[in-house]
Structures are given as structure tokens and as C-alpha cells.
Amino acid sequence: MSKLIKIFDTTLRDGSQSVGINFTVNDKIKIAKNLDDFGVHYIEGGWPGSNPKDVAFFEEMKNVKLTNAKLTAFSSTKLKNIKIQDDKNLVKMIETGVPVVTIFGKSWDLHVKEALKTTNEENLDMIYSTMEYLQKYFDEVVYDAEHFFDGYKANPEYALKTLEAAEKGGADWLVLCDTNGGSMVDFIDSTFQTVKSKFSTPLGIHAHNDSELAVANSLVAVEAGATMVQGTINGLGERCGNANLCSIIPNLSLKDNYITVPDENLKKLYYMSHLVSEISNQAHSDSLPFVGKKAFSHKGGIHVSAVRTNSSTYEHVTPKSVGNERVITVSELSGRSNIIERAKQMGIDLRSDNEKAGKILQRVKELEAKGYHYEGAEASFELLTNALVGRQKRYFELHGYRIHVWKKADGESWSEVTIKAAVPKEIAENHGYESHIEHTAADGRGPVEALDKALRKVLEKFYPELKKVHLIDYKVRILNAEEGTNSVTRVLINSADDKRRWSTVGVSDNIIDASWQALVESLIYKLMKDEEDKV
């Protein structure tokens, strides 16, 4: 019988500590929803006692219903020399209302002395009393034994005592952490087996990648008895990162016959990986195992011939099993199944129309070669597909716009946009207007804000429902920095109304044009979805 391994995702907490990563609250909500849909068991949302953003995230998540995952908050054991009920970090955690909390404590006597500046006995009491206190507020309390392997190497007797304190305090999980990421596989294995023989509480593993062994150490820990694996999407994390769940999950599920996420969700792995990269505003590594674009690529000659005959000759798993695709550089069929599957989710059946599926695939490849990226811009992909199958409605037509940017000597600047556009005549007539052409202007602090306000000034007159749309995030990424000021820019816009959230993308060597593309598609998507809701 297959054994269940609980997947504990800490992308939003430990992953956000990566240099260059700065998730907004809305970013975190979007990732959390997708992680839940993917089927992980725990989502560690952040440390509410450490910053206002995490407090806001947990407050917003009270209105989000998760169907598969348990939302988790993170904090440390109680502070020394303070009553536990007065510890502000623990109070903040209780206020989140989450069902599960993760508490880290010190396992290495060096940290007890140097970081906590207390005694070994006081540290044990802090661990025990925190576990005991939190039991009455949460369904589960996960204890992260920070620096456990370094602590065990330095003083095995004391490291084990810290686990005993957590277990006696009522911890539901004991998670052994290779916090510095320096432990070798054989040491993880032998230490885990020792701990397994001494404790009845379920065990977990939390590995860092400073020695390029986080995935290997996580897998060997599972073989030695761990039933929870902590990690992040794409291995995001401080320094060299955390254990990469995009490698751990398929290795456990497809090769070792463990149960991780539901089998039918494994094919969402590729999408999940690219989504997090796009929201993180980071370049996705093409060479990542399982989820990289090169993971199943074959350039020619003997490899291509063999794979076409029997894919197992040069592929250790099937690309479709993780949502990826085989790439044969001379093949026009590569990726068509993915297009068909995504179109099906939009209500478009292309299974018997290879010509249209191929047309969409070809256009996607052309646009992605120019810098477009649709993993994080699902609304733009839907609009593109609708246009190519001939079912996209035209809501307005741009005649042109002009932008003036003013910069005063005192440093203050502002922008003005003049725009001329037309809506279909029948739309204007239905709203009681004689003219279907609008020529107007608007200003803003910057050109993008002015452009957005001017476009809305034209459209909201005929489409008042657009007043409900608001921009929740705006990301700019330079795609070929070596070109300097002539670089191509990708703009990703996240929008929302009172019912849904969506993302659109624009690409151009002119940042204003890229922004315009994403802004226009955001509003068109809103109008399209509102019409679909009425059907």
C-alpha cells in the first residue's frame, strides 16, 4: 500500500526570503490559491509577528476558502523571561485564526548560548511551554527543530532533549531542520533513523540547499521515516534556497510510489512552477528538472529518432505526467496537447481541429520568442485563443493616443494623455449616445496612470461595469538588459473586480506600449467574463 507524505509548502514564508523576491499581499493570495488547487497539504503563509504585510495577508485569507490545504502561520518559541500569554509573536499568531501553526526552536546548544543568550534548561522550558500553550488554540502544532543536524553533531544528547521537550509539550509534528544546508546524505539518513527509533511523534524534514543536497536529503529522510516534507516551489529560499518541491514531489510520486499531491494534479506542476517564477518577477530556469523548458528537449540525431520510437530511451518520466512537453526542435507537433487541454478548460474543444490547435500553438511560440509569457497571464492567453478561433468580440477600436510628460525644476512631474477611440455604434446607441467616437484627455502622476485614466474615461461611459475594475499589481521586467535603454520590456498587470482576479501581459521595446497592451486586455477580459456570466 502506498504511503502518504504530507507536502508542506513554505514558498510564501521561507521562499520569500530569497534575495530579489518581494511578494505583495495579492501575490501571496494568488500563489496560495494555486497551491491549494495543486493539492499541497500545508501552506505556510508567513510570520505575522514580524511584519505588517503578513498580518494583512492572514487577514485577507480569512475570506478565502481553501479546499485541500491547511493555512499555517510561523513564529518562534516564547521569548525568555516573559509570561507566555504576554508574548506578542504568539498573540499575533492566535489572531490569524489559522488551523495550524509552525514554531521553531533551538536544537543547537551553540545557538542557545550565542543567539538566545540563555541556558540549555531555559531553552527546553521555552520549547515545552510554547507547545503546551498553543495546543488549546490550534488543531495542529508543528515544531521545527532549527539547526537540528548541526546541533546533533555537536551535542546529540541535548539535541534529542529539545525534541523530547516538544513532544512532551504536545507537538503534533517534529520537523528536523538542516538550516545551514551543510549536512551530507549519509548523516541525514543515520540521524533520522536514530530519531525515528526514539520518538513516536510523526517526523518531517526541512532541508536547505547550500550543498546542493536539499532534494537528496529530503528524499533520504522520507526513506528513513519522515512523513512530512517541507520545501518551496522552484527551491526559492534564503542563500542557496530550500528543498525544491518541483523535484521532490514527482520523484516521490512517480518513482518511489508514495502519495503526495493527488495523481491527477501532478500535471499541474509545470504550470505551478512557472506561475511562481512569473509572480516573483524572476527568470524561470529552462534547465530545472521536470519543469524546465529543456527538461524534455531533444535536439536531433540519434536521440530524436530513439524518443520517437520509444520515449523511455531518453526520458526518465513522461513529460505529460508533470504538465511539461517534449520539445523536438524540428517538430511542429510539440506542445499541441497542452494547447488542447488549456482550450478545453476555456470551453473550446479542439480535439478534432488540429488546424486551429496548431495555429494557436504556432502563435504562442512566436509571441513567447518575443518575450510574452502566458503562465502568469492566463487572461491574455484566453483572449489570444479566442481571437485565433474567431470568437473574440471587439469592444472598442483605438484611433490613437498622445502622451505629454512634464518635469518641473523642483523635481515634480506629471503626465497627460490625449486619446481618441471608438466603440461599436450599437453600443453607443444602446446607452443613448449619438456619437460612438470619444476624444478626451486625462492626467496622472506617471504616463501609465494617465493612460489608464484616459482609456477608462473613454470606455466607462459605454461600459459602466469597468468602474469595478482596479489594478492590484504592476510588474515590469527587462528581458534583454544587455541592450540597455533599447531593451524589450514585459509588463504584467494583475487586476480584480468584486468577483475575480486576473493577469494580463504586454511586451514591447517601448514600456508605454507594453503597459497599454496589458491595460487594454485587462479591461477586455472583464467585459468578456461579464458577458459569459449572463449566459
Structure overview:
The chain has helices at 25-38, 52-61, 88-96, 109-116, 120-134, 148-154, 156-169, 185-198, 214-223, 245-255, 269-280, 301-309, 336-345, 354-369, 378-388, 425-430, 447-459, 511-534, and strands at 6-9, 42-46, 70-76, 100-106, 140-146, 173-178, 203-207, 228-231, 297-298, 327-328, 397-407, 413-422, 437-444, 470-478, 489-496, 501-508. It is an alpha/beta fold and 535 residues long. It folds into 3 domains: 6-280, Aldolase class I (TIM Barrel); 352-390 and 469-535, Double Stranded RNA Binding Domain (2-Layer Sandwich); 396-462, Double Stranded RNA Binding Domain (2-Layer Sandwich), CATH 3.30.160. The strands form 4 sheets. An 8-stranded parallel barrel has the order 1-2-3-4-5-6-7-8, surrounded by 8 helices. It has a 3-stranded antiparallel beta sheet with strand order 11-12-13, with helices on one face. Strand 2, helix 2 (52-61) and strand 3 form a beta-alpha-beta unit. The protein starts with 5 loop residues before the first strand and ends with a helix.
Give a quick summary of the entry:
The chain has helices spanning 25-38, 52-61, 88-96, 109-116, 120-134, 148-154, 156-169, 185-198, 214-223, 245-255, 269-280, 301-309, 336-345, 354-369, 378-388, 425-430, 447-459, 511-534, and strands at residues 6-9, 42-46, 70-76, 100-106, 140-146, 173-178, 203-207, 228-231, 297-298, 327-328, 397-407, 413-422, 437-444, 470-478, 489-496, 501-508. It is of the alpha/beta class and 535 residues long.
